Every structure is written in structure tokens, then in C-alpha cells.
Amino acid sequence: MILIVSLLLVLNFILFHMYSSQKKTIENYRDNALEAITTHEDMKETLRIGLYHRYKRDLVEDKVENPLLFEHFVAEIMTSVRGGSTYVTKGSGDYGVDIEEETNAGLYLGQVKCYNDYNPVSFDPIAIIHSQMVKQGAIGGYLITTGKFTANAYNYANELNIDLIDGNQLVELWLEHLDSKRELVSEFKALPAT
Q1: Element holding 93 (H helix, E strand)
Q2: For the chain, how long is the longest CA-to-CA vector?
Q3: Sequence-ordered list of residues with C-beta below 8 angstroms from that of 174, at least 6 positions apart, any chain
């Protein structure tokens, strides 16, 4: 009888130790996951700020780069993520339309703004895109910024079929675009040699 009680006590101790060990492991996984999410959000914020600094027009530094680089960058992302084909309009005389996107559903018009957080996008560019949507018979539009939008911008765009894509959402689309490129490269690598 003493042997059975001793075995039960040892078995209970082993089970308790295994339970405690597994509980600690799960807590570590949870803590690491929370840290990774926070780090991931910090990384996205860094990318958003980096996009602004990469594409901002700096009159003081007198950049020699093509001023339409940001428009081309966004157009490539939109083509990759939404499908269809995009056309970047010329720099002036475009009546506020930076990107024309033709999809199976129809024409979408886009405008991009490389703004920082201290200069949020107001409702004015939304009015311009909406006006051009009506003139050109577009079924939708979008306004994309590296920064943020004002509350009035969101109120004005409501029910106009114009998507407002802020800097954080732009980074999400960019990461989705990069994933699709990575998948495409993986498909090429997977082809067997003949």
C-alpha cells in the first residue's frame, strides 16, 4: 500500500511539473507573440515614415529625381494588389488625377499625396477626384497619402465611392505587393530543370 501511495505522489509531482513547464512555455509564446506584433507595428510605422522621406519633394535640397516617382510607386502597388492596369498621368495639366486605373469593373481615378503627419490631407483633393470621376465616367476613386486624413476628409468622402488610404494602409498594401512578388519568384524557382 505504501508503494502505491508513493507511486501516486511521484506521478502527481511529475504531472504537476509537466503542467507548470507547459504553462511557462505557453506564457513565453504569448509574450513573444505580443512583442512580435508590437515590433511589427513599429516596423510598419518606420516604413511609412521612410516612404515619406524617400518621396517627399524637397525644394531646399533641389532633388534631381523624377517628381513622379511616388506616383509610379503607388501605381505599381495598385496594379499588383487590385489587378487591371494603371497609367500615371503627366505632371501638370492632369486636373488633379495622378493615376488612371482600368479594371474589369471599370475606371478608377487616383490622386497621391506625399505628406507628413503635420500636414493631413483635407477634403479638397477628394472634391477634385470626385469631379473628375463624374466628368470621366469613373466608377470609383482613391486618394492615397503617406500621412493621415482630416476628419472632414473622411466625412466628405463618405458615400462618394472614394477610398481614403492613409500611410499605414499604404504600407499594408506595399507589403501585400511584396508578398505577391515573392510568390511569383517562388513559382519561377519551383520550375523543374529540363
Answers
A1: none
A2: 96
A3: 47, 51, 77
What's residue 191's pLDDT?
A: 55
Beta bridge partners of 158: none
User: Tens of pLDDT along 35-47?
Assistant: 655 567 888 888 8
C-alpha grid cell, residue 116: 507628413
CB 88 within 8 A of CB 75: yes
C-alpha cell at 110: 487616383
- Return contacts of 77-81, CB within 8 angstroms, 24+ apart: 77/170, 77/173, 77/174, 77/177, 78/110, 78/142, 78/173, 80/176, 80/177, 80/180, 80/181, 81/173, 81/176, 81/177, 81/180
**CB burial readout 52-79, b (16+ within 10 A) else e:** beebeeeeeeeeeeeeeebbbbbbebbb
DSSP 126-170: HHHHHHHHHHHT-SEEEEEESS-B-HHHHHHHTTTTEEEE-HHHH
Contact of 98 with 69, CB cutoff 8 Å:
no
What's the angle, vertex CA 75, arms to CA 66 and CA 179, rounded to 5? 115
Global model pTM greater than 0.90: no
Cell numbers representing residue 107 in the block: 475606371
- Do 110 and 97 form a contact (C-beta atoms < 8 A)? yes
Q: How far apart are CA 150 and CA 145, in angstroms?
A: 12
